[in-house]
Write a structure and sequence with these properties.
This protein has 276 residues and is α+β, with helices and mostly antiparallel strands. It has an 8-stranded mixed β-sheet with strand order 4-1-3-2-5-6-7-8, with helices on both faces. The two termini are 30 Å apart. Belongs to the tRNA(His) guanylyltransferase family.
Length: 276
């Protein structure tokens, strides 16, 4: 590039590089999503199509950034964990944050019609992002546990709130007043006694969020295993998950398999090829 007298303005740019030897977490969060979900008439308390669209967008981010070892999402947010020693974009925080949030936002719009075939997207949603560094494996696990615990707290409240509104005939303000100061046990009791809902039988995707991990899977009539992105809806707070998926914390570099031309998203019998 030819130099000019104006090039000095580049000296004003500031590179904010993430500290070495730390897990990098980028969390995207919907901006004014309460309004967005109301205008687009999302089902309350959980819209399955909306949740699956969030996950589809997150899968697209994981396919683009192969150094992401795990992702977790619920409602209108998703957290992406980059491996501890990633050198992607020289660990420039603003670069990672802006690219993840922009790709997630554009993916959400791009895949909208796959999940809402009869519902027009009335305006483009936006997602903000933040970046946080965690120096130890325990710090990272505590972060993931915090996000999953948040799912439980919010979903139990919302399930109870919208049951009171949609089935109990209360107004929003009346339902809010009824639940004010109640404990989890009391909310469970309201659901069971008044609406015959056993909260523990609600779908795990609603109660525990969606965790995305990379796994080698062998499919029928195939000799070699393939690397796929799998959703997991169980507990990630207890040790069992981390013991069964020990490679997440041990991964020091991205395996060569991550750089093959296609990665697949596998959910039960549904398999989507993601060509790169």
């Amino acid at each position: 590039m030819a130099k000019s007298k104006f090039e000095y303005v580049r000296t004003f740019e500031k590179e904010d590089r993430c500290l070495q030897n730390c897990w990098i977490v980028v969390r995207v969060d919907g901006k004014a999503f309460h309004k967005f979900s109301e205008i687009h008439e999302f089902e309350k308390p959980n819209d399955v199509g909306g949740l699956k669209l969030m996950t589809r967008s997150a899968v697209n981010v994981m396919c683009e950034f192969r150094d992401i070892v795990i992702a977790f999402g619920h409602s209108d947010e998703y957290s992406f964990v980059f491996r501890k020693d990633t050198s992607l974009f020289n660990r420039r925080g603003e670069k990672l944050m802006s690219l993840v949030s922009s790709l997630f936002s554009s993916s959400y719009v791009f895949y909208w019609n796959e999940y809402f075939k009869q519902k027009k997207l009335l305006y483009a949603p936006s997602f903000d992002a933040r970046i946080v560094l965690y120096p130890t494996d325990d710090n990272l696990r505590d972060y993931m546990s915090w996000r999953q615990a948040d799912v439980h707290v919010n979903n139990l409240y919302n399930t109870c709130f919208w049951s009171l509104v949609n089935k109990g005939g209360l107004t929003n303000s009346e339902a809010e007043k009824t639940l004010r100061g109640t404990l989890a046990s009391q909310k469970n009791e309201i659901l069971f006694q008044e609406f015959n809902i056993n909260y523990n039988n609600e779908p795990e995707m609603f109660r525990k969020g969606t965790t995305l991990i990379r796994k080698f899977m062998k499919f029928p009539n195939e000799n070699e295993s393939r690397l796929v992105i799998c959703p997991y809806y169980g507990d990630i707070i207890k040790n069992k998950f981390w013991e069964e998926n020990i490679e997440i914390l041990l991964m020091k570099s991205a395996p060569a398999e991550l750089y093959k031309e296609d990665i697949e998203f596998y959910e039960g019998k549904n398999k989507i090829s993601l060509l790169k």
